[in-house]
Amino acid sequence: MINSNCSSSCSSNINGNHHHHHNHHKLPKRIILLRHGESQGNKDDAAYTVIPDHKIPLTDQGFDQAERAGTRIRDVISDQGASHTWKVYFYVSPYERTRSTLREMGRAFPRKRVIGVREECRIREQDFGNFQVAERMKVIKETREKFGRFFFRFPEGESAADVFDRVSSFLESLWRDIDMNRLHHDPDDELNLIIVSHGLAIRVFLMKWFKWTVEQFERLNNLENCEFRIMQLGSGGDYSLAVHHSEEEMKAWGLCTDMIADQKWRASATRGDWNEKCPWYLDAFFDTFNDSSDEEELFFETR
After folding, report:
1. Is the pTM value of this prediction over 0.90?
2. Helices marked H in the chain — which ranges?
3. Which residues are catalytic?
4. What is the pLDDT of residues 19-44, one digit of tens each?
5. Which long-range contacts (C-beta less than 8 Å, at least 24 apart) are formed by 131-135?
6. pLDDT tens-digit profile of 54-77?
């Protein structure tokens, strides 16, 4: 089994060396994270007071956005028609707005290119409680800003930290699917995974994958409707946002200079390598170290 740590070039070689037996052809070329199209709730908060969140439909604009997103993604993964071996597999949140987004996107894909689709409950929207009373939700969201977006738990609902836990579980399953070839794809094909989900779940997915801190997560901007992020295999077999996306794009998403530098490093890093320049793995947690050789000798002598 591959665990999600194998995706991180900033993880230790103890984890990384275990995975070098993988042929890069067996790994998906891209993992694409797409937020759903505009929903009635995005257009008017009042929708949440009378319609359960999971049943909120797309607007007419949302349907159009989804169809256009399908075409844009097809153009990317087919290399504007130059690639003849690409295939796609979809994971979709069970909510009405994500299922509808996928259905509209599907118009852009020939049937023979689609290996399969799976409804995945763990990538659903953050639970804000049941029917949402507008005035009450306004006060609650103001409280969240004071408390901190990651740890604040909505009454009768979830915190972003809760979403992180279930998305982490999904990531483990995703890697098992790939590792055991449960997706049944021909290793000679270019496999692309497309995950149709929600803004917060996508940000949490990236946080888990790239081992971003809570502080880094809280600086991230949400995705626009039908906006997507492409994690693509770099030359060394590690995934990076910097293979497809520009530095300007990543900056606009809320990635700081260090995070962007790490993405660029991953674009050519050998899978499983340790990026010693990742400041948040050591420097962010420690001020100084005791580097006395006497201390080390004493430690080993007493073991």
Report:
1. no
2. 13-16, 40-43, 47-50, 60-77, 96-105, 134-147, 160-179, 199-210, 214-218, 247-253, 257-266, 293-301
3. 36, 125
4. 444 444 489 999 999 999 999 999 99
5. 131/48, 131/49, 131/50, 131/52, 132/45, 132/48, 132/49, 132/53, 133/49, 134/45, 134/46, 134/48, 134/49
6. 999 999 999 999 999 999 999 999
